[in-house]
Automatic annotation (TrEMBL), chain A:
PANTHER family, sorted: ATP SYNTHASE EPSILON CHAIN, MITOCHONDRIAL, ATP SYNTHASE SUBUNIT EPSILON, MITOCHONDRIAL
Name of this chain's protein: Uncharacterized protein
Family in the record: Belongs to the eukaryotic ATPase epsilon family.
Xref: InterPro entries: ATP_synth_F1_esu_mt, ATP_synth_F1_esu_sf_mt
Gene Ontology molecular function: proton-transporting ATP synthase activity, rotational mechanism
UniProtKB/TrEMBL annotation, chain B:
Protein's recorded name: ATP synthase F(1) complex subunit delta, mitochondrial
Alphabetically ordered keywords of this record: Acetylation, ATP synthesis, CF(1), Hydrogen ion transport, Ion transport, Membrane, Mitochondrion, Mitochondrion inner membrane, Transit peptide, Transport
Occurrences of domain ATP synthase F1 complex delta/epsilon subunit N-terminal (ranges): 29-109
Highest classification ranks of the organism: Eukaryota, Metazoa, Ecdysozoa, Arthropoda, Hexapoda
Cellular location(s): Mitochondrion inner membrane
HAMAP family: ATP_synth_epsil_bac
Assembly: Component of the ATP synthase complex composed at least of ATP5F1A/subunit alpha, ATP5F1B/subunit beta, ATP5MC1/subunit c (homooctomer), MT-ATP6/subunit a, MT-ATP8/subunit 8, ATP5ME/subunit e, ATP5MF/subunit f, ATP5MG/subunit g, ATP5MK/subunit k, ATP5MJ/subunit j, ATP5F1C/subunit gamma, ATP5F1D/subunit delta, ATP5F1E/subunit epsilon, ATP5PF/subunit F6, ATP5PB/subunit b, ATP5PD/subunit d, ATP5PO/subunit OSCP.
Length: 58, 158
């Protein structure tokens, strides 16, 4: 078993690190565009009785 | 050979036909896509070399059906016209089907000429210092992955 698996990581974690590094190693003209893909946005809105109560962004 | 003959008697005619069809396929339908770009979409190619956790291997038409998890490294695609394309993959999967079709799905993939060699070397140094300052097992494991990936990047950019 690989060391990272023993430390509790899975292949999704591995893949994320690897993809991130590849983006950082790109030539500068391509890098700017690639780094935009890094961000992920999640907006959660709680609804009660048909009305939005609270919105939080992650 | 005798064993093969007795084996074939056990197969239904349909299964036998399928085997023969696969056995004589001279081309493979190749699809290679990543989160950032589609490189091949059902194109016929001669050979594909992939780095995987079960070792690096080459895929030719008639390859036995296989599933493998990609290791960061260079995928070489030998096109029909004789050209070779080298693409660095971060991670992902490779699927080889019974009909000789091959799919590679990667999280991120770029032609090796788009990798900046000095940026890759910088990442390697950075991940090495990340390892020496790692406080727990998980941080240590993450740094080790980073080193492995940057080493592959440096090698590919050479």
């Amino acid at each position: 078993m690989s060391a990272w698996r023993q430390a509790g990581l899975n292949y999704i974690n591995y893949s994320k690190i690897s993809a991130k590094l590849l983006r950082q190693a790109l030539k500068s003209d391509l890098k700017a565009d690639a780094l935009k893909r890094e961000a992920s946005h999640l907006k959660v809105t709680k609804w009660e009785d048909g009305k939005p109560i609270k919105t939080s962004e992650y | 050979m005798a064993a093969m003959r007795s084996m074939s008697r056990l197969l239904t005619s349909r299964a036998l036909n399928t085997t023969i069809r696969r056995g004589y396929a001279e081309e493979m339908n190749f699809t290679f896509a990543a989160g950032n770009q589609v490189f091949y979409d059902g194109k016929s190619v001669k050979q594909v070399d992939v780095p995987s956790f079960s070792g690096s291997f080459g895929i030719l038409p008639k390859h036995v059906p296989t599933l493998a998890v990609l290791k960061p490294g260079v995928v070489s695609v030998y096109e029909e016209d004789g050209g070779v394309k080298k693409i660095f993959v971060s991670s992902g999967t490779v699927t080889i089907n019974e009909d000789s079709s091959v799919q590679i799905l990667a999280e991120e993939a770029h032609p090796i000429e788009n990798i900046d060699a000095s940026a890759a070397r910088e990442l390697l140094t950075k991940s090495q210092s990340q390892l020496s300052s790692a406080a727990n097992d998980q941080a240590k494991a993450e740094a080790e992955i980073a080193i492995e990936v940057s080493e592959a990047l440096v090698k590919a950019a050479e």
